[in-house]
């Protein structure tokens, strides 16, 4: 089973700073569900936003779609959970 880190913020927020290696799939994008359904439902998904609000909503949505291993964090929590640095725009 693989682990994927997903930044559910906007592309602009992602560009400013993100967890290194995270995919940017914005929760606000109309194609969010379609994009997420490309992953196997047993994939370990770590979703995050700035402070946890959108990440929490994304987790709820993904769980309702049948994903079985989803955790949600704010950006710093995701960095700690994955032991991966936050990359800042220079």
Walkthrough of the structure:
With 90 residues, the protein is of the alpha/beta class. The chain contains four helices and six strands. The protein has helices at 11-16, 32-36, 53-64, 75-82; strands spanning 3-7, 17-19, 23-24, 44-49, 70-74, 86-88. The protein has a four-stranded parallel beta sheet with strand order 3-1-4-5, sandwiched between helices. A two-stranded antiparallel ribbon has the order 2-6. β4 (44-49), α3 (53-64) and β5 (70-74) form a beta-alpha-beta unit. It is globular, with a radius of gyration of 12 Å. The N and C termini lie far apart (34 Å).
Percent of residues in beta strands: 25-35%
> How helix-rich are the residues, as a percent range?
25-40%
- How would you classify the helix and strand content by structural class? alpha/beta
Low-confidence stretches: none
What do the pLDDT scores average to? 95
Q: Please outline the major beta sheet.
A: 4 strands, parallel
- Over the alpha carbons, how many angstroms does the gyration radius reach? 12 Å
Termini Cα gap = 34 Å
Instruction: Give the helix tally.
Output: 4
Order of helices and strands: EHEEHEHEHE
Tell how many strands the DSSP assignment holds: 6
Overall body shape: globular
């Amino acid at each position: 089973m693989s682990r994927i880190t997903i930044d559910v913020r906007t592309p602009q927020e992602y560009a400013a700073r993100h967890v290194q290696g995270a995919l940017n799939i914005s929760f606000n994008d109309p194609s969010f569900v379609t994009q997420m359904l490309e992953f196997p439902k047993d994939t370990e998904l770590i979703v995050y936003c700035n402070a946890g609000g959108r990440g929490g909503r994304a987790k709820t949505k993904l769980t309702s779609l049948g994903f079985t291993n989803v955790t949600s964090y704010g950006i710093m929590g995701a960095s700690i959970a994955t032991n991966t640095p936050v990359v800042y725009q220079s």
